[in-house]
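JOB MANIFEST
job_type = single_chain_structure
chain_count = 1
residues = 424
[input]
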Amino acid sequence: MIDRTLAPAFGQVENIDLLHAMPYKLDNGLQCFVIDGGDQDLVRIEFIFSNVEWDMTKPLQAFATNTLLNDGTSQYSAAQIADKVDYYGAFLQTEYNFDQVTVTLYTLNKHLKSTLPIVKAILTDSIFPQREIETFILNQKQKLSVNMEKNDFVGRKVFNEALFGNTLYGYDIDAAAYDHLNRSQVAEYFRKAYQPQNCTLIIAGKVKNETLQELNNIFGIDWNNAGVATPNSFTFGKAEGAEHYVEKKDALQSAIRIGQIAINRGHTDFPGFQVLNTILGGYFGSRLMANIREDKGFTYGIGSALVSLKNTGYFFIASEVGADVCSQAMSEIEKEVNLLKDQKVSDGELDLVRNYMLGSMLGSLENALSHADKFKNIYFSGLDYDYYDTYIRVVRNITPDDIIGLANKYLNFENFQKVIIGKK
């Protein structure tokens, strides 16, 4: 019988087997990657386009174009597009981030002949009806007005601008930017960005030969490049630390966001920095949570993260705390940062973090789709699968001395941009 008075033994993850993406090209040269796995007759097809030719005078081009893609072609209205996709039990979505835009189709293989032409029409024949653009502008301005009342939203805007300035990553979008948006800007960006040479196609799920043949029939024969666009490229340097304070007299809570330009996934220190971040604020058992939530009761939640972007990376700590304890919370955050620079992490705490990180990675690999997500992380960072071998090796073998070295290298509180929205 099992002795339930004894905790079960645990062991560290030794290695993680990933489904490798297999390269494939359509007849027109469109680069594809296939992650084949699973028993369900389902595929996820992602058309991923790099954001191109950032223009500060037209800051909403990429975002607006991606959002409006589904709103009409020369043959179908927005409602007709939605009805056709729903009829086949498929799902179509668009996503935008700083570096890329994505059009994703989830569908059964047996419906590819019916669903792929809809996607083809969207990617080649979107017309961006004026009425839909006007509705988009109205809705976005209303959404912005509501969000500007939220301290955490304002904090993110101020923080991004402090780190990245007037670039795509940091530009301060206000209502006036929407007033200057027009159909010609959207159509111009659509012609530049939504081209096969600017696209990477990632197919995950139960991928059959017929799947690839159908993709080639629809996207590989008569979808040709109509122009050349230059992907965005930015360079950033660390600015001197500064405090950015936006007072809200009636605030019951103050939003805190602090951090600085750091490194991205391509840097050799990135896996070790992820361990350091997890100890500080990267999971529920982190030091920031233990101190500022559990011990002091200043907040419901606090965390930190290391974010990898194409052109850079950044580290931040974020929370919302009671307005009357904001100053104390900032002091406690600084104390926790400095402790990592001065005192060695115990072996017990480091083992706990190791197990959490490796277990989380293993648990995230549920199916071919999640394996494809892991591939995207490395591919768009210019890396290969060796990155994950390195990641596992670093997490398993990092020492308390390594943690102190990384903390002194990257966590200098006086150099952080410190944003407070509400009351100090």
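[summary]
The mean pLDDT is 94.
The domain at 242-422 is CATH 3.30.830.10 (Cytochrome Bc1 Complex; Chain A, domain 1).
exit_status = 0
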